[in-house]
## 1
Amino acid sequence: MVLFYLILTLVNIIPIDSSLRSCRQTFGANKYDLNKLDHLTLSGGDTQFRYLLTPCGIVPADKCGKSSTPLDKGITSCQERIATSSFESAMGYLDGYGKSPNLEFKENPQGPGTGVVMTMRNAKCNMNERLVKITFVCDTSITNPTTMDVKENPTCQFDITVKAAGACPIKEGGVSGGTVFIIILLVLVIVYLLGGILYNRFKEKQTGLAVLPHPGFWLLIVGLSLTGCRFCINSIRNCFQGNSATSSGKYESV
């Protein structure tokens, strides 16, 4: 059971790490990390619809209006119909959740160091592709924005502008997403091993190798790994022996 939860946790970590990496972009000498905005949920809209965006994060389902069915995983922006306070549609999805194409990034056309433009094309609008272009403008005076400017023109094509200090180039330093992933993985493995050993030793009164969690599974993995190594070694050896025999045969025929 512990192994099942460990695998389940890793399956959920992988798409999160994918979205973290895609929101880190480098253009020339400027490095951006839009993950610094993933704790915010921005709103904007018109008289008919309200739009919500959690930059590089999952937009809270309760912010998107009422829905008779659970929302899809990976929604980073949604559309709510104001009149009925109901969920209208997804505006876009994060990378790593099976939606295509992936997010596209480029530096703000206003000039180097002025921000990032993120384009989403992985949601539908009236059964057609929805185009959402979000311009994150570097503004050091706005640390925690709450609103965004949303314009739809033509239908199903949206231009969103977000002004935030988190859209400014970052300085070197800090912990990367890959490092965070490795740390989480190591912690989970340690908890799994220690928890399993303590449970088997004191609860099940096991000794020796039996104290290891799921010893049969791990012994099977080791056995299969050794078998695979032997197979590779034998294949390489046979390949060289075959080449040697062929070369020898050609030499004798001459």
## 2
Amino acid sequence: MLTYLLGPILALFPRRWRKLLPAGSAMECRRAAVLSGFGEAVIALIALIYWYSHYMTLMMDHALDAAITGKLPPGVTDHEIGFTALVIWATHPLTWLLAYAGVEGSVRLVGAAFTETNLGIFPLFVLDKVIGMITGQGKEEASATKYGAQENFSSYVGAIREKAMVRGLPEVPDELCFSGSAPDEFLEVRACRRKADWNPPRTVRYQDTFYRLEACSVRSASRPFRYTLRKLTAGVMGRTVLVYSPEETPVLAKR
């Protein structure tokens, strides 16, 4: 409940500020950031539409008053008046501010939804950096922020590319490829969709056998996601063990 009530508001703040608040550690940051970004984008869009309607009506009223009083030069058409009003509206600072808020909200929404990058709003981010520079914390976090930003950008681009690639692939059963011999026996799982939480070096149980996830890669094929697992001599079930039990029966790869 806290995530839905206070989460979207707390998600506006920089990460360091959220950590200082008691409620910041109790909410689901990703879901709160998604709601916050969506809310910012929608509110900005509604405000932009209202601002357009209000400003254009105001400009047309002024033009009509000028035409009645004879202040407009002869030969001016309604289209020219409307185009001039549109240009003035488009270059107004409030228009740019609302447009920026809409773009920022969309970026925050997509970042939180696809890459779990829970960004606050940019003005508070700048304020946080200024405070950090004054208090001396900015230099300590500069290196981490630089590499973190590069990693987040790469992750964001990779997630978008992966979504586009998977969208055109049909859903087919996994393909299993067994190789090697004891004690170096391997199992390669080839899937058409990425498997959640399959990150090395997790332990995976398939049927009655335990494997250690050695590596994962992405290739260009009908089953682009490849997971390489090494067979273990023994294993014990635990909370961290992934149970591999696909809904559709996997097919064996032809050697």
## 3
Amino acid sequence: MSTEPPQYPPPDDDPFKKQPPQQPPQPPQGGGSPYDTPPPGGGSPYGTPPPPYGGDPYGGGAGGLGGPDPLAGMPPLADSGKRVLARIIDMILVGVVVWLLTWLFGTSEYDIDPDKVNTGRSFGQSLLAALLYIAYDTYLISRTGQTLGKKWLGMRVANLNDGATPTVSTALARAAVLWLPFAFCCACIWTAICGGWSFFDKPYKQGLHDKAAKTVVVSA
């Protein structure tokens, strides 16, 4: 009889037994991640792709970033050519008054020193012109939004944000930007630049004085 101990086969759960390598899961037919559930209709599982470059992801509108258009509900913007004609009418009307007042207060007793008189008259006339033009614009624009020239040609000044008639402070700021340089330094050049800006400005056809006061000119 043998004295050797009996031999038993090793158990199947032997931790030292070499296990075969596991294979990674295979993706389903047609490609894509095995962890994604395709949405109904065959769309991308990651949602709608972003808009192409140059598109506006916030929506259109003149207000920008999807904001409301300030001109919504207002009459159409006034034609820039008609605005120039209305301004010429106003300049003639007030200019006649300035000339009459200058002539009325220009006395001959100051002719003793022509150089000083000419300088004084020039400054006095410029100051008078500035005051009258600013007062004319401020008073009429703050009341109805219309100077006489604008009224005759069917247009008015309105606040850009709500279309209301400008307040006295808004009308004063608008008039000062327009008429102070006109009266004291560069009448023709400044008028052409300030008013002519509306021919090129987009989208509100604003002159420089409109931009300063945040106003627009619309059809009445």
